[in-house]
C-alpha cells in the first residue's frame, strides 16, 4: 500500500502547490506578469524537453518526471490565460439580456486563443512522446484537459459555487459568463464519467505489476479523483478558498472603507445631496455607485461633473434579483479604486432593505468600516406621496440612520414640522435634519457614521424582505438631439406636471440650448431648470418615470422644443 502512497501524495501536493503558485503570481501587481510569463515559458520548454527525454524511461523516476512535466506543460496554459496573454478576442462582459447560443458564442470568444493553445500544446506533447512507451506525461496533460473543459462547461451552465473570489480584477468580466444555479444537467454526467474513469485507473494501479506502471496509474488516478473533487466543490457548500488562502494573499489587501447609502424616493434630492457631499470632500478617495431607474441614467453625468469616479449599475432597482451582481460589483470597484469611501445612490424605487442585506453579506461586511444610511425626503411632496406609498416610506425610514428633510424652501415651517413629526413616528431612533438643495440648514449637523458593530438590529432583520413595498413604474427615454429652446422645455415640463402625458412621477433630462447645456427636472410635481457643465460627449436626453406614460406624446412634445420651430401663434 505504501508503494501507492508516495505517488498519490506527490500528485496531490504538486497539484495543490502549483495551483496556489499560479493564483499567487496572478495576484501580484501587473508589472510582474511579464516575468511570470517568461518564467512559465521557460518551464514549458523544459517540460517539453523532459517529456521527450523521459518518454523512453520506464523506471519509477521516469514516471515522476513525465507526470511533473505533463503538469508543468499544463501550468503554462493556465498562467498564460489568467495573466491575460493568451485569452480570446472578447475582453468584456456579455451584454445584458444575451442568452442561448449567442451567449455561448461570446463565452467561447473570451478564451478562443487559450483553447487553441491547449490543442497545439496537446499535439506537441503527443508528438514529443510518440516514440516512447512512457505515456504518463501525455495522459496527465489529457486528464487536466478533461478536468478543465468539464469544469468550465459546468460553471457556464450553472453551479452553486462559482468560486469567483479567485478571479483577479482584470478578469472580472468573466463573471458575466458564470451562472449561479443549484445544479445543471451536465453535472451528473461529468461526475459519472469522471468516476468511471477514476475507478478504472484505480483498478489498473492496484493490478499493475511493475513499479513504473503502478506509479503512472497512481498519478493518473489521483488526478482523476481530484477532478471529481473539484466538481463536487462546485456544488457543495465547502470553503474551497481555504485550501489556497495563502495564495490569495498576494493581492493588494483592501483597506476597510466607509459606506454611505443615500436613499429616497424619485426626485427627493439624492443626487443633489451627493453632489454637495462630494463638493465638500474632494480630498478623500470616493467612489459613487449610482443605480438610475432607467437604462440611460442622468445621475452619473451629474455626479461626474463633480469629479467623482462614478460606477453606474445597469437599469433597474437594486433589489433581490441583482443581489449577487451588486456584491460582485462592489467588490470589483473596491479592488479597482481602493476608495476610502463608497457612496451608493440606489434608484428612487429600490428596495433599500435588500440593499442592506447585500451590504451585510459576510465577505463585504468585513471590509466595511462604517455604514450610514440616509434617506432624503422631499418635504414638499412627502405628505402627498406618503398617503399613496406608505409601505415604501416606512421601509425607507426604517433602515435610515438619518432622515434628511430636503426642499425646506418649498414648505412653511409648520408643514416641515408636520413632515418631521410623521417621520419621527416611522423611526424614532433616526436623526432628522432639514436641508435645502442637499445642504443642511444652519445649526444642523450630520451624526457620525455608525460603526459596523453598532449597527441597528433593523439592518440585519430585513434581508429577505420583499419588493412589495416599492411602487411599480415604467420609464421612457426620449432623445433630444436638437438645440432646445428653454422656454419651450419649461412649457413641456408644466404640461407634464398637469398630467398631459400620463402619470409622470419624475422626469429628468439634459439638453443643449443655443447658449449652452442645461438640465431640467420635474420632481415632486415641481419643474426646474439649471445650467449644467456637461461633457462634450454628453448625449442630450430625457427620462420620464411613471405610469400610463404617453411615450409618443412626450417624444413629440420634446421634438417640438427645437430652437427654431416657431411657437404656435396664440389665437
Ligand atoms: N426647491 C428645491 N429643489 C430641490 C432641492 N433639492 C433638490 N431640488 C431639485 O429637485 C430635483 C431633483 O433632484 P435630484 O437630486 O436629481 O433628485 P434625485 O432624488 O436624485 O432624483 P432621482 O435620482 O431621479 O430619484 C432637481 O431639479 C433639484 O434641483 C431643494 O432643497 N429645494
From TrEMBL:
SMART domains: CobW_C. The keyword Hydrolase applies. CDD domains: CobW-like. InterPro entries: CobW-likC_sf, CobW-like_C, CobW/HypB/UreG_nucleotide-bd, P-loop_NTPase, Photo_alph_chp2, Zinc-reg_GTPase_activator. It catalyses: GTP + H2O = GDP + phosphate + H(+). Residues 447-468 are annotated as: Disordered. Coiled coil: none annotated. The keyword Ribosomal protein does not apply. Keywords: Chaperone, Hydrolase, Membrane, Nucleotide-binding, Transmembrane, Transmembrane helix. Residues 473-562 form the CobW C-terminal domain. The chain crosses the membrane at residues 6-25, 32-52, 58-76, 185-207, 219-246. NCBIfam families: photo_alph_chp2 (TIGR03055). This is Photosynthetic complex assembly protein PuhE.
Amino acid at each position: 500500500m505504501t508503494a501507492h502512497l508516495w505517488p498519490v501524495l506527490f500528485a496531490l501536493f504538486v497539484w495543490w502547490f502549483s495551483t496556489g503558485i499560479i493564483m499567487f503570481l496572478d495576484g501580484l501587481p501587473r508589472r510582474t506578469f511579464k516575468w511570470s510569463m517568461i518564467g512559465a515559458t521557460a518551464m514549458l520548454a523544459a517540460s517539453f524537453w523532459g517529456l521527450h527525454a523521459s518518454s523512453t524511461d520506464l523506471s519509477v523516476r521516469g514516471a515522476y518526471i513525465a507526470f511533473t512535466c505533463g503538469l508543468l506543460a499544463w501550468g503554462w496554459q493556465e498562467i498564460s490565460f489568467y495573466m491575460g496573454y493568451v485569452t480570446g478576442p472578447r475582453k468584456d462582459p456579455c451584454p445584458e439580456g444575451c442568452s442561448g447560443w449567442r451567449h455561448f458564442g461570446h463565452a467561447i470568444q473570451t478564451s478562443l486563443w487559450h483553447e487553441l493553445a491547449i490543442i497545439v500544446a496537446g499535439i506537441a506533447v503527443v508528438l514529443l512522446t510518440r516514440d516512447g512507451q512512457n505515456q504518463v506525461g501525455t495522459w496527465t496533460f489529457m486528464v487536466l484537459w478533461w478536468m478543465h473543459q468539464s469544469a468550465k462547461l459546468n460553471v457556464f451552465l450553472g453551479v452553486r459555487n462559482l468560486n469567483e473570489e479567485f478571479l483577479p480584477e482584470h478578469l472580472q468580466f468573466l463573471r458575466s459568463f458564470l451562472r449561479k444555479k443549484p445544479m445543471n444537467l451536465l453535472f451528473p454526467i461529468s461526475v459519472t464519467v469522471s468516476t468511471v474513469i477514476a475507478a478504472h485507473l484505480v483498478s489498473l494501479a492496484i493490478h499493475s505489476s511493475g513499479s513504473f506502471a503502478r506509479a503512472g496509474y497512481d498519478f493518473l488516478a489521483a488526478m482523476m479523483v481530484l477532478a471529481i473533487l473539484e466538481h463536487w466543490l462546485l456544488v457543495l457548500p465547502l470553503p474551497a478558498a481555504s485550501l489556497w488562502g495563502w495564495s490569495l494573499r498576494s493581492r493588494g489587501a483592501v483597506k476597510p472603507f466607509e459606506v454611505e447609502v443615500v436613499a429616497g424616493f424619485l426626485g427627493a434630492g439624492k443626487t443633489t445631496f451627493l453632489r454637495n457631499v462630494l463638493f465638500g470632500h474632494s480630498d478623500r478617495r470616493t467612489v459613487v455607485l449610482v443605480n438610475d431607474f432607467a437604462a440611460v441614467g442622468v445621475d452619473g453625468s451629474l455626479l461626474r461633473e463633480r469629479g467623482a469616479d462614478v460606477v453606474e449599475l445597469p437599469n433597474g432597482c437594486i433589489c433581490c434579483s441583482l443581489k449577487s451582481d451588486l456584491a460582485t460589483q462592489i467588490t470589483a470597484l473596491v479592488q479597482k479604486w481602493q476608495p476610502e469611501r463608497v457612496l451608493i445612490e440606489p434608484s428612487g424605487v429600490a428596495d433599500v432593505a435588500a440593499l442592506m442585506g447585500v451590504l451585510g453579506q459576510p465577505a463585504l461586511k468585513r471590509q466595511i468600516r462604517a455604514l450610514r444610511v440616509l434617506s432624503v425626503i422631499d418635504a414638499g411632496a412627502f405628505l402627498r406621496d406618503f398617503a399613496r406609498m406608505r409601505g415604501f416610506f416606512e421601509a425607507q425610514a426604517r433602515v435610515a440612520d438619518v432622515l434628511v428633510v430636503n426642499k425646506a424652501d418649498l414648505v412653511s415651517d409648520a408643514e416641515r414640522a408636520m413632515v418631521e413629526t410623521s417621520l419621527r413616528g416611522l423611526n424614532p431612533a433616526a436623526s432628522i435634519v432639514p436641508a435645502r438643495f442637499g445642504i443642511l440648514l444652519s445649526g444642523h449637523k450630520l451624526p457620525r457614521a455608525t460603526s459596523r458593530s453598532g449597527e441597528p438590529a433593523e439592518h440585519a432583520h430585513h434581508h429577505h424582505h420583499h419588493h412589495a413595498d416599492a411602487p411599480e413604474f415604467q420609464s421612457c427615454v426620449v432623445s433630444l438631439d436638437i438645440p432646445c429652446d428653454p422656454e419651450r422645455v419649461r412649457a413641456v415640463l408644466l404640461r407634464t406636471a398637469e398630467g398631459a402625458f400620463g402619470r409622470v412621477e419624475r422626469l429628468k433630462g439634459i439638453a443643449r440650448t443655443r447658449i449652452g447645456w442645461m438640465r431640467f427636472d420635474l420632481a415632486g410635481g415641481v419643474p426646474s431648470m439649471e445650467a449644467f457643465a456637461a461633457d462634450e460627449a454628453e448625449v442630450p436626453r430625457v427620462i420620464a418615470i411613471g405610469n400610463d406614460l404617453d411615450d409618443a406624446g412626450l417624444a413629440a412634445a420634446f421634438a417640438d422644443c427645437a430652437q427654431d420651430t416657431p411657437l404656435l401663434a396664440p389665437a
